[in-house]
Amino acid sequence: MKKKKICLILFCIFIITCGPTSGLAKETILLGLCPKYNARVMYQLYQPFVDYLSENTPYQFEIKLCRFYQETIDRLSKGETPVALCGPIPYIKAREKSKVKPILRALSKDGKAHYRGIIIVRHDSPIQNLSDLKGKSLAFAQEWSTAGYILPRYHLLKAGISLKDLKSYGFLRHHDFVAEAVFKKEFDAGAIKDIVAYRYQQQGIRHIFVTDPTPTVAIIASMNAPKEMVDSVKTALLKLNSGDPVGQRRMSQWDEEINYGFMEASDSDYAPIRKILRVVEKESHVRGPILE
Predict the structure, then answer these.
(1) Are 144 and 70 spatial neighbours (Cβ–Cβ below 8 Å)?
(2) Residue 223: Cβ within 10 Å count
């Protein structure tokens, strides 16, 4: 009897330590991120988000941060990152290159899935509106940035202002770089997304133009991404919309652009911004170096 007990104990230990679920690492999924901010800030704001996905899905998620929006989309198109989080223009560009779909859209503070682009100047600037930008210098974000380039270009065109009407213009790598360049008087004005503009409002920056609402950032998945993985991401993030205090505390660590929850997305959500992109592309194919 004693020998049987010993055997039973040893068998239980074997099952616990060597059983089918022990020692099996989760499959790693790379999550592509468009470089909206500098690398330090991106990891600070998005690592908690990635940690949440790893804890609430059967997968281990890791950040794949690229230097350019185009690089993020290229990796998604090649299948190197089966899922990515980017704004409307990168999504549209990705859709043109390969089979991808938006699975979720982030909600804003007011519970809507929209945000705006803002053109900023210093508080002491004589510039009051878009017309005053003629003969002035203007800083954009990257060329695939929705709020940092495409939206302001569209509204400048509507106001009868082309790039040749500006004294000069430049493309900066991140939205916060644009705000800092305006603050430091390196440019007369700058185009950035609303959450960044509001952040700099207390530092001597004011707004001269606010765009119409545009769809928020989307979580994009390759059509070839495993359905189980896509479904697990949707389930994990959609359950945060219920107003659960624990979930709200968790999201408070994330970038403000994604910390109010998510809703399901479809390609038709991006039809308005797709039309705006076509207008800008028809006007000119501008290319410029990204200023460090």
Answers:
(1) yes
(2) 10
pLDDT tens-place string over residues 17-26: 444 444 468 8
The answer to whether the Cα torsion of 212, 209, 164, 292 is positive or negative is negative
Domains of the chain: 28-113+215-271 (3.40.190.10), 117-211 (3.40.190.10)
Q: What does the alpha-carbon distance between residue 283 and residue 92 come to, in Å, rounded to a whole number?
A: 18
pTM of the model: 0.80
For every residue of the chain, DSSP letters joined together read -HHHHHHHHHHHHHHHHHSTTTTPPPEEEEEEE--SS-HHHHHHHHHHHHHHHHHHSSEEEEEEE-SSHHHHHHHHHTTSSSEEEE-HHHHHHHHHHS-EEEEEEE--TTS-SEE-EEEEEETT----SGGGGTTSEEEE--TT-IIIIIHHHHHHHHTT--GGGSSEEEEESSHHHHHHHHHTTSSSEEEEEHHHHHHTGGGTEEEEEEPPPEE--EEEEETTS-HHHHHHHHHHHHGGGG--HHHHHHHTTS-TTTTT-EEE--GGGGHHHHHHHHHHHHH-----PEE-
Minimal CA–CA distance to 33: which of 70, 63, 78?
Answer: 63
pLDDT digits (tens, 9 = 90+) for 78-103: 889 999 999 999 999 999 888 899 99
Alpha carbon distance 106, 142 (integer Å): 21
**For residue range 37-87, what is the model confidence (pLDDT) as tens digits?**
888 989 999 999 999 999 999 999 999 998 888 899 899 988 899 999 999
